[in-house]
Amino acid sequence: MKILAVGLIGLMFLLPACNVLGNYEVIIELTGDAGIEFNGWYVTTFGGLDSVEGTIPASWTVSLRRNKIDNISAYFQKIDQPGTMTGRLIVDGDTVQEKTVTNPSDALHLHWEQ
Predict the structure, then answer these.
(1) DSSP three-state, residue 9
(2) Cα separation, 72 vs 89, whole angstroms
(3) What average pLDDT does this structure show over 94-108?
(4) pTM of this prediction?
(5) CA–CA gap between residue 48 and residue 95 (Å, rounded)
(6) Residues 36/81, Cβ–Cβ less than 8 Å
(7) Is 37 helix (H, G, I), strand (E, B) or coil?
(8) Beta bridge partners of 57
């Protein structure tokens, strides 16, 4: 019985540490009027720069190192088309930043720091 109690107390101290293990999962999401063409990039501190282009909707999943100075920035520009483009950064399931643009050549910049 004493061993069980000690084990449970030890587990209570370890559980909060489990929440900080692993990496952040970041989803970069572009939504809005389907078919709008865009180009741009996203960059992380440790992962480097990735150039992207395509049509809405689009998304990318990026892993950021937890407890490090690992940040993410993203920039997307519409290619001279009317309509709405919305960019979102979703970190571990929570939207941390969202921006919408509507003019034909608008661009948006997203950024998140730990």
Answers:
(1) helix
(2) 9
(3) 96
(4) 0.78
(5) 23
(6) yes
(7) strand
(8) none
